[in-house]
């Protein structure tokens, strides 16, 4: 649905050139929710703006729904953008228009007739649960309600692709949870493909099927969430399930165990203890049911002199657990 190949974007200011996106490749499958995670300045927003061509990349290709946007002239690009909805961090609502009029504005720009606009606006506000707030102005709406208006507006043209620019970062935790539930429901109900950028791991845990971690304009890790979490040394696993500093346990070696998907069997430690006569101590850990898989990380201490240590670790790796020495 979305394919990015060799994307590069450099900005030139008073100082040295800054390459915001540096040779990025990305594929988002139809119906997938793909998250790009990184700190401020990593290049996430520039990448997103290149997808709908609000920023023209210096190099590379962007293809959305089998249309290569980087090859289109401005008139055809405007039409192609109607298939791409955009949800903004700070809502970007018109203060002088009601919730209904903000949604209607997107349809006005497209030249949709008034009667058809009214029916579509009513449908969209019902879809996001705001029928009773149609006449309210942005100043009269909560943050979550404003974002629901923004989502309704983004869906006005019946897009197949939705881009989300930090859609929950200005919201409190409870409202964030409600918006994430709404987005997941809309994905399933409307068959949307979503590319979102965020710095919040809660968004990845609750919403994303796949993810890329971005640093200094490049992806340092990319793939399906469950596959990344089960990979030894995964940065995503470290970010989602931080285990803190490594303590000293006299006479023991410490290992970080990553579990994801079907290998998340709660009995594995007791089985390991019984079969290999190992004294297993859990030093730290967290296990959660994520959107993509049940996953977590445990830090365990194993006696360094135990005869069954090597066999136990080998068995864990063979069963699909990520195993690495804690550092």
TrEMBL record:
The Gene Ontology terms for molecular function here are: ATP binding
- Domain called ABC transporter: residue spans: 2-241
| Gene3D superfamilies documented for this protein | 3.30.70.260, P-loop containing nucleotide triphosphate hydrolases
Q: Which SMART domains match?
A: AAA, NIL
Matches recorded under InterPro entries: AAA+_ATPase, ABC_transporter-like_ATP-bd, ABC_transporter-like_CS, ACT-like_dom_sf, MetN_ABC, MetN_ABC_transporter-like, NIL_domain, P-loop_NTPase
Q: Respond yes or no to whether keyword Translocase is given for this record.
A: yes
Keyword DNA-binding: yes or no? no
Lineage top rank: taxon: Bacteria
Q: What is this protein called?
A: ATP-binding cassette domain-containing protein
Q: Which organism is it from?
A: Micromonospora cathayae
Taxonomically, what lineage is the organism?
Answer: Bacteria, Bacillati, Actinomycetota, Actinomycetes, Micromonosporales
């Amino acid at each position: 649905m979305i394919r990015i190949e060799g994307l590069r974007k450099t900005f030139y200011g008073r100082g040295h050139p800054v390459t915001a996106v540096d040779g990025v490749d990305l594929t988002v499958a139809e119906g997938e929710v793909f998250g790009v995670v990184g700190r401020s300045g990593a290049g996430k927003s520039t990448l997103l703006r290149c997808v709908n061509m609000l920023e023209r990349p210096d190099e590379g290709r962007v293809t959305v729904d089998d249309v290569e946007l980087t090859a289109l002239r401005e008139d055809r690009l405007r039409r192609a953008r109607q298939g791409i909805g955009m949800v903004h961090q700070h809502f970007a609502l018109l203060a002088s228009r009601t919730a209904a009029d903000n949604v209607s504005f997107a349809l006005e720009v497209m030249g949709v007739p008034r009667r058809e606009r009214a029916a579509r606006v009513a449908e969209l506000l019902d879809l996001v649960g705001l029928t009773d707030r149609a006449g309210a102005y942005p100043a009269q709406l909560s943050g979550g309600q404003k974002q629901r208006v923004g989502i309704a507006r983004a869906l006005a043209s019946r897009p197949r692709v939705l881009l989300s620019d930090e859609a929950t970062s200005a919201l409190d935790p409870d409202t964030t949870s409600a918006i994430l539930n709404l987005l997941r429901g809309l994905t399933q109900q409307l068959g949307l493909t979503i590319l979102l950028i965020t710095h919040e791991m809660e968004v990845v845990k609750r919403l994303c099927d796949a993810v890329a971690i971005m640093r200094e304009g490049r992806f340092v890790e990319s793939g399906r969430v469950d596959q990344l979490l089960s990979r030894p040394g995964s940065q995503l696993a470290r970010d989602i399930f931080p285990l803190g500093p490594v303590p000293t346990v006299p006479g023991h070696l410490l290992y970080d165990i990553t579990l994801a998907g079907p290998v998340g069997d709660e009995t594995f430690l007791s089985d390991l203890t019984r079969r290999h006569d190992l004294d297993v101590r859990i030093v730290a850990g967290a296990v959660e049911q994520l959107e993509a898989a049940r996953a977590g990380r445990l830090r365990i201490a194993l006696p360094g002199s135990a005869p069954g240590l090597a066999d136990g670790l080998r068995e864990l790796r063979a069963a699909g657990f990520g195993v690495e020495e804690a550092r």
